[in-house]
Amino acid sequence: MHHESCIMNLDMLIKNGHIIDPANKVDEKLDILVSEGKISRLGKPGSIPANGAHVIDAAGKLVVPGLIDMHVHLREPGFEYKETISTGTAAAKAGGFTSVCCMPNTNPINDNRSVTEFILSQARFAAARVYPIGAITKGSKGEELAEMAELHSAGCRAISDDGKPVANAAIMRRALEYSKIFDMLVISHCEDSALAAKGVMNEGIVSTELGLRGIPRAAEDVMTSRDISLAELSGGRLHIAHVSTAGAVRMIRDAKSRGVKVTAETCPHYFSLTEEAVRGYNTMAKMNPPLRTSDDVVALKEGLKDGTIDVIVTDHAPHAADEKAGEFDYAPFGIVGIETSLGLTLKLVDEGVLSIAEAIRKLTAQPAAILKIDKGTLSAGSDADITIIDLSEEWVVDSSCFKSKSKNTPFNGWKLKGRAVQTIVGGKS
Amino acid sequence: MSLSTKDLLGIKSMTADEIKLILDTALTFKDVSERDIKKVPALRGKTVINLFYEASTRTRTSFELAGKRLSADVINISTSTSSVVKGETLLDTARNIEAMKCDMIIVRHSCSGAPEYLSKRLKSSVINAGDGFHEHPTQALLDMFTIREKLGKLEGLTVAIVGDIMHSRVARSNIYGLIAMGAKVRVCGPPTMIPPGLECMGAQVYYDMDKAVEGADVVMMLRLQLERQAAGLFPGVREYARLFGLNQQRLSGAAKHALVMHPGPMNRGVEISSEVADNTPVILEQVTNGVAVRMAVMFLLSGGTKAEA
Amino acid sequence: MSVKEKALILDKTGIDRALTRVAHEILEKNKGAGDLVLVGIQRGGVHLAKRLAIKIREIEKVEVPVGSLDITMYRDDLATRKSQPVPQATDITFDIQNKIMVLVDDVVFTGRTIRAALNSIMDYGRPKRIQLAVLVDRGHRELPIRADFIGKNLPTSSKEKVEVMLVEDGGEEKVVILGE
Questions:
Q1: CB-based contact (8 Å) between B31 and chain C?
Q2: B136 to chain A: nearest residue by CA?
Q3: C74 vs chain B: nearest CA distance in angstroms?
């Protein structure tokens, strides 16, 4: 403990970096002084004396608020063979993320205070900050609401039955209504189970050719439409998870223009890949919602560009190698993503879809604002969660080097440009 | 001329020349089955494993006979008699089999892609004996062999495939093969059983069976899985039979010489009337030809496996 | 490596003379054409068997059954070949049980084809006797096999190739030695 506090107390001066802090509309070269784990002050390059502080030269680098991934699966408790809070946050840190929100589909499910407290206690020594998301319904069974006040007071800022939709519209309505007591965010996994049925990939030409059961885009669209209506009815704060279809983008855009309290996220794989990646029965391209078509990719990029989609998340879903091997039908849905997210998002910047500031905003200020957490900025006085990015570094994805316990990525071997070279959490790097 | 791969996984990746090679080779093997001594030593000393994860007496027997008539040693492994039920993975099972030094593994699996998965990881030749809704290449080859035998050619023929196209690997393999060989393919069934993208494969889609059958040289009926009713894909057997069942009257719209085919087992009175079924000797000839075609496939794939090892 | 014709061994007339003699020898050895059947080995032997049958008919005024035999599936090198040969038709539509069968081939070389033919024939029935007639015996036997009727004995190098060309296959009729 003594040793730790020593590091905490060592001041840090990040010099000559290009600061992008979208929340404060900062986009210029500044030095940052970190003291006692907080951002102490910012100033013109050379204006802050080091005074014995540890100096980090960030010349030619980007200095941004610590990235936030509001949709990950850390698998603990229950599935520690896939990932633990320790390995998952180490992976987050390697990917440039200082905060993650972990979904409640653990075993036991995070539908009560003791699981939330367990996660938070495990997270005390983690490499990144962990924000647990509670379940909407008990056991995520979609039947009875979980005790939201308990979850809230234990530390949950959002609820979700992610992995499964809340099939019963009345229950979803009640969740959205009840959440207003705590201003809790309700994150919806939009999928009509009957339409998705036993599907394992997007329904279309490729599923026909491969002879795999398809999940129609309508399975997502129908539920997105329902939940937007329920958000409108209830006045609760709805957040649509992992948007993958053009239809959902269109409906969310329309809802936002009508003033419905709805926000949305998508993942790098949905704007980087299409259903074609499944060919060869590639289980690394199996996730839910499934990879869609090039039309959907175009629509997602449009939605990211015009602000319909507020946040980029990973849906980091670690699975053991054995689980992802074998028959496509039997492989679990999901891929790891937190160590490739930034590189894939920066491709959008290269393609001209997003400005660098917009890209960073979707990874920092936007998720923080939606979650109503005091993160995602470099304001003086805030926690010193800082990510230093080298935009020019070219690298090849090598899953064997992942900090994550699992290596299930479809991006292995991809050449990416730009990566986090230093991730500082609470003033510690 | 030889086959370009060590495996037969599907018709989609095959050229017309490769299909023709198999059909031509099958012709000589058909003679073998008609001799008193129905055996040639072509695969003497080779070991062939029938690895069946899905029950199928007909296909398994056909492959078994084909292997035995080529003098291979054939072992059958089916889900009920293996460690499959104990939860061993597909790859572990296959590697164990391969460790016993087999040359060829014939895989039937309810999951699409399972044979392809194994083929990438095993040295043995893998033959797809039907995987999920993906492909059933030897069935399509025997269907094409039978059509060519009866009608003298494939090119320019019109073939109507009727029934549950969505869940049919037989339909997919036949669509690829027939189109590669220059035939025109019509597919027909209720829209609930027509998967998207068939037009991209080159087939024409019909919902009206009379129109699909009109002038057709071949009417290929697919077996209706009765449990699809529960999934809401059709309202009832009676209505299905009325709209998509083949009876004598409907058949009269096809070409005079039209062949009626069925991969079996038939649901009499559902997709095919007994009257039509009993007047269609071709359906049994398909079974006979199945052995010859599978012998040809096994023979052609057996070349070179040892030489390269 | 170019392959060229090194020597002309038999021309059209020479082939015909040799076949006439072989036909006489077959009849002489078997004391007529009773119980006689001819089976040509695919591909070179099939036409020769048909020609011998015509000659026998001219000599004895008897119709001898003629069949063809494909030995592909009985070859002893199937397991080591890179790709499989395409089998030709076997067409033996008559009963061979207790018959005197004359196997006909164009060239006998290592003897392996004849070994395969003998095995194959046994799967069709049990002839009383099997004899072998060839147009050319070029030596270099690898198995204890000997022809009963030989059109032409031809000492060769094992690197050379003996080619029998017949009008039935189109082109000039001749037997030649090919070499580098």
A1: yes
A2: A211
A3: 6
User: Residue B98 in contact with residue B122, Cβ under 8 Å?
Assistant: yes
CA distance B47 to chain C (A): 12
Q: Are A66 and A301 in contact (CB under 8 A)?
A: no
Measured CA to CA, the distance from residue B154 to residue B146 in angstroms comes to 10
Q: Residue type for A175, please? A: A
- Cα A79-A80-A82 angle, rounded to 5 deg: 75
3-state SS, one letter per residue, for B126-138:
EEEEEECCCECHH
Can you count the helices (H) and strands (E) in chain A?
15, 17
The mean pLDDT of chain A is: 96
Chains contacting C with at least 3 CB pairs below 8 Å?
B
The string of pLDDT tens digits covering residues B47-64 is 999 999 988 889 999 999
Residues in chain B: 309
CA distance B219 to chain A (A): 22
Q: Which residues of B touch A205 (CB under 8 A)?
A: 196-197, 200
Q: Which residues of A are catalytic?
A: 315
Residue A317 CA from chain centroid, whole number? 11
Alpha carbons C105 and C116: distance in angstroms, whole number: 13
Beta-carbon contacts of residue A257 (< 8 Å; ≥ 6 apart) = none
What's the whole-model pTM score?
A: 0.90
pLDDT surpasses 50 at B287: yes
What confidence tier does A1 reach under pLDDT thresholds 50, 70, 90? very low
Segment A204-214, tens digit of pLDDT: 999 999 999 99
Q: What is the pLDDT of residue B184?
A: 98
Cβ count near C139 (within 10 Å): 14
Tens of pLDDT along C47-90? 999 999 999 999 999 999 999 999 998 988 887 777 778 888 88
State the Cα–Cα distance between residues B118 and B131, nearest whole angstrom.
12
Closest CA to B129 of B213, B189, B58, B25: B58
Please tell me if residue B25 touches chain C, with a CB cutoff of 8 Å.
yes
Task: Please give the DSSP secondary-structure letter assigned to residue C170.
Answer: S
Which one-letter amino acid corresponds to residue A291? L
Interchain pair A326, B200: CB under 8 A: no
Secondary structure of B54-123 in the HEC alphabet?
Answer: CCCHHHHHHHHHHHHHCCCEEEEEEHHHCHHHHCCCHHHHHHHHHHCCCCEEEEEECCCCHHHHHHCCCC
| Domains of chain C and any CATH numbers | 4-76+89-179 (3.40.50.2020)
